[in-house]
């Protein structure tokens, strides 16, 4: 889809296409639509960042709270969004051993109890070994 | 559910219970959770209003853009959330004649083109006659 097409989308279609750029937060796309026309892909991306920057801290935490746990019940139960399933799959989180699954669950629970939001990391740019290590380090 | 139970909910359970208070915007509940413990139901409600007040105008418009059209394709297609279906049903919007459905669709389209968000009114406190009249008046 080229930029002219993006700029001519109704808000319904814009939310349909870009609504899950911020997982489970279609309000971000619905708000960003106000900024059209976008002059470039970078401008579209900056509009997302700018909107998130305007949110109070609780709103930014809210975004994290809607993010699925890594290797959590959404992945196990098959209820992840397609985008997250692909990302978690690339990191090898869909082929954890039973032991790794329970270790990840224990660490996730501890992390959420401590910080009030889930552990989030770019699964596309990490694998299960580095993800588990980072999770332990942040709790350390 | 009493106040002590609400205050002891994890953010996952809080979002599960209150996530659709603002239709399709679970981020509001996920953010409001930061304000617990709530001292009363009024305090919980005020926390919702306060969070929405902090949003830039585009964010408030974004909330409206995620709201289903009255008597729109979600109602016709059976994809409305339970809460909205009940509200629209109480206003008689689920028993419109074919003529009324097409009149409502035409006015909704005109309204969205003009304002950039859908016509929203408290369906629980209105019926189809007053809803159609108000919609025409706002476009007048």
Automatic annotation (TrEMBL), chains A, B:
Keyword Lyase: yes
Keyword list, A-Z: Decarboxylase, Lyase, Peroxisome, Purine metabolism
InterPro entries: OHCU_decarboxylase, OHCU_decarboxylase-1, OHCU_decarboxylase_sf
Enzyme class: lyase
Pathway(s) this gene product operates in, as recorded in its UniProt entry: Purine metabolism; urate degradation; (S)-allantoin from urate: step 3/3
Pfam families listed in its UniProt record: OHCU_decarbox (PF09349)
Localization terms from the record: Peroxisome
A single cellular component GO annotation: peroxisome
GO terms (BP aspect): purine nucleobase metabolic process
Residue span(s) of domain Oxo-4-hydroxy-4-carboxy-5-ureidoimidazoline decarboxylase: 7-139
EC number: 4.1.1.97
Gene3D superfamilies for the chain: Oxo-4-hydroxy-4-carboxy-5-ureidoimidazoline decarboxylase (1.10.3330.10)
Catalytically driven reaction(s): 5-hydroxy-2-oxo-4-ureido-2,5-dihydro-1H-imidazole-5-carboxylate + H(+) = (S)-allantoin + CO2
GO molecular function, one term: 2-oxo-4-hydroxy-4-carboxy-5-ureidoimidazoline decarboxylase activity
Keyword Lyase: yes
Family according to the record: Belongs to the OHCU decarboxylase family.
Function summary: Catalyzes the stereoselective decarboxylation of 2-oxo-4-hydroxy-4-carboxy-5-ureidoimidazoline (OHCU) to (S)-allantoin.
Name listed for the protein in its UniProt record: 2-oxo-4-hydroxy-4-carboxy-5-ureidoimidazoline decarboxylase
Lineage, opening ranks: Eukaryota, Metazoa, Chordata, Craniata, Vertebrata
